[in-house]
Amino acid sequence: MNAKDTMLRAKEKKTVIPACNIPYIPMVKPIAQAFEDENSVAMIQVARVEWEKFFAGSLEAVAEEYEKYKKPDHTLLHLDHVPVIDEDFQKVDYMALMERAVKAGYQSAMIDASRLDLAGNIAATAQAAEFVHAAGIPLEAELGSVMGHESGEMPPYEEIFKSKQGFTDIDQAKEFVQKSGCDWLSVAAGSIHGAVAEGLKDQKKPEARLDIEHLAALEQATDIPLVLHGGSGMNVDYIRQGVKTGITKVNVGTELRQTYEQAFAKRQDVEEARQAVYEKTREIIVSFFGIKDSRTLLFG
Fold first, then answer.
1. Cβ proximity of 192 and 148 under 8 Å
2. What is the pTM of this model?
3. Rounded-to-integer distance, Cα 187 and Cα 210, Å
4. Interacting residues of 281 by C-beta distance below 8 A, sequence separation 6+
C-alpha cells in the first residue's frame, strides 16, 4: 500500500484509517495482527514523545519491530508528531528526525509546528514537505492546538469546547494548505490528547466531542484528508459523524497504552499484555470504528 493513495481512497469512501501509537515496542505485533485478522487497514505510528517519555526506544527501534510483524496489505508505518517546539516548549531539530524517518523506511511522516505563528508553521511545514516529498512519502501537518500534551494542568474540558480554545481557524486552514504543501492536516475541533505529564498518565481522559459544523467548514476550505488526534475515549457517534465530514485518519493512543500498562502490571508478562492489546484493538476496529473488512472497501 501507498500511504497517500490509501488516505485519498479512505476520504473518497468516507471511511477511516485508525493510527495506533506505540509507546511500548511489544505493542506492534498484536496491533498489526488484529488489523490483518479483521481485514482492516491502519497506520502503526510512533511520536517523539513516546520515545522521550515512554518506552518506544527510538523511531528506528519501532521501525525495526514493525519490519518483523508488518502486514503489508493491512498496515502502514507512520512517524507521528515531530514537533518544532515540544510539549515542554523546547526547540527540536525536526529536520534531523525527518531524515532519520526516511532512512528508517517510514511511509509517511508528521511535522507539528502548531506552536509557531501561522507564517512560521507554514515555513517549517513547507521545508519538511519538500524534503519528504523528494523521498516519495506524504506529510501530515497540524494547525490549531489539540490540547493535552502540555506540561501542567489543562483547563476543564467544557471550558475548552465552549470557548473553542485552540480550534483550527477556517480561513487560516485554507491559506495553510495552499502554501505549506502538506498532504493531510491534523485539525482541532474538540478532541484532546491523553496527558503525558508525570502524575497524569494514568488518568481517564474526559469524554470529548466534536464540533461537526466546524469540521464541515474545514473540509470545504481545505479539500484534503483531515486528521483527528486524541481519538481515544471519544463518543463513537462523534467519531462516525466526523468521518462523514472529512476526518480520514484518527489517532488512537491512550486507550491502547493504558490497556498494555494495566495488563503488564498484573504479572509483568509481555505476552499477556500483548494479548490484552490484541483484544482491545479488535474491539476498537469492530465496535468503535465499525471498519471490519475496510481493506475490501478500499481496494476491492
1. yes
2. 0.90
3. 11
4. 20, 30, 31, 34, 35, 256
